[in-house]
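Z., the sequence and structure:
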Amino acid sequence: MKYLLLLLAVVALVWLLRGARHRVPPPQPPSAASPQPMVACRLCGVHLPQHEALPGRGGVFCGEAHRAEYEKQHPLG
């Protein structure tokens, strides 16, 4: 009887190890190569990555609405 239990344990172990070998590991989330510089919106002060900021006449902005509002409040001349 104990040999039967030992045989079942060995078969179960082989089955588990064989199944683990064929599993595909889950994909890893992409990691940023390097930290992105952060800038603040000239109108509201919200910080955002520099590559997402919109350049404007008075600095950088978080969106088109804030760029237009700032330029409306600070006309040229």
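The chain has two helices and four strands. The mean pLDDT is 87.

Let me know what you think.
H.
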